[in-house]
Design a protein that fits this description.
about 270 residues; alpha/beta; Rossmann fold; 8-stranded mixed sheet; AB_hydrolase_sf; AB_hydrolase_1; hydrolase; AB_hydrolase_fold
């Protein structure tokens, strides 16, 4: 467990293992703790790096509005802190957006990139989803019902009803009733309002794996197909019957895709 200072704020991160660096970038409601089940497998042959963005987890909270640009600089400061000239970026949802924006600005620091459930732009439709989230922050159960069921596929949510009930109790009684957390969620959500790297994506030449999910109702499949069209060095994989929280629904597949893409050497066929 370590901290570094960024613009007068304390930023929390964790590192495990040795080898090719993999930085896991959180979704909007996540923190370093969210990746606990993946630590052992990801650090077996790689250096695993976990990071809490500003307003997440154990990193300091902000007191004013901001944009995702500041999270890009937090990530750059982390690489500088660890003296890394290159790293592999793995981002899901909000973390994938930050990864894209980082690659646009600091491409030379990125080896390969894996993007789960990510979009190139916050559309009016997606922005209004965020507005709905933020309008429900004053009631923990309202916030849960507005934000959580939709991030899972219906099959997973129904099949794992006991697990989901336990999460509902945990989140509504210990997380969504905490004012500092909810204020941070409002700022985090609004920080993505102006996310748009659409015109810059053709400039990215990093090997990139884009993972789309059939039952993603937050960043649906056309969003990832657009990413694939714009990034010429990308590959696209679609996970059937999976929702926005793909790493929870398909942890083995999530791990296999990330580690395989990051660690596999290039293969060329001579025809």
């Amino acid at each position: 467990m370590s901290y570094f200072e960024f613009m007068g704020k304390q930023i929390y991160y964790e590192t495990y293992g040795q080898g090719k660096p993999i930085v896991l970038l959180n979704g909007i409601m996540m923190s370093t703790l969210s990746w606990k089940p993946f630590i052992e497998v990801f650090s077996k042959e790689n250096q695993l790096i976990l990071l809490d963005f500003l307003d997440q987890g154990r990193s300091d909270k902000m007191d004013t509005a901001y944009t995702q640009d500041i999270q890009i600089e937090v990530l750059k400061a982390l690489l500088d802190e660890l003296k890394l000239n290159k790293a592999n970026l793995v981002g899901i949802s909000y973390g994938g957006e930050v990864a894209l924006e980082f690659a646009v600005k600091y491409e030379k620091y990125v080896d390969r990139m894996v993007l789960f459930n990510t979009t190139a732009k916050t559309s009016p439709w997606l922005k209004d989803i965020g507005v709905a989230w933020n309008r429900s922050v004053n009631d923990p159960l309202d916030y849960y019902c507005t934000t959580i069921p939709v991030i899972y596929s219906p099959k997973f949510y129904n099949d794992k009803s006991e697990w989901m009930d336990n999460r509902k109790t945990l989140l509504t009684e210990k997380v969504f009733n905490q004012k500092p957390f909810m204020e941070a969620m409002i700022r985090l959500t609004e920080s993505a309002d102006n996310h748009d790297v659409t015109e810059k994506l053709p400039n990215i030449k990093i090997p990139t794996l884009i993972v789309s999910c059939e039952n993603d109702y937050i960043t649906p499949m056309p969003e990832q197909r657009k990413l694939h069209e714009l990034i010429s060095t990308s590959e696209l994989v679609v996970l059937p019957g999976t929702g926005h929280a793909s790493m929870y629904e398909k942890p083995l597949l999530f791990s296999s895709l990330v580690l395989g893409f990051v660690n596999c050497q290039s293969v060329e066929f001579i025809v």
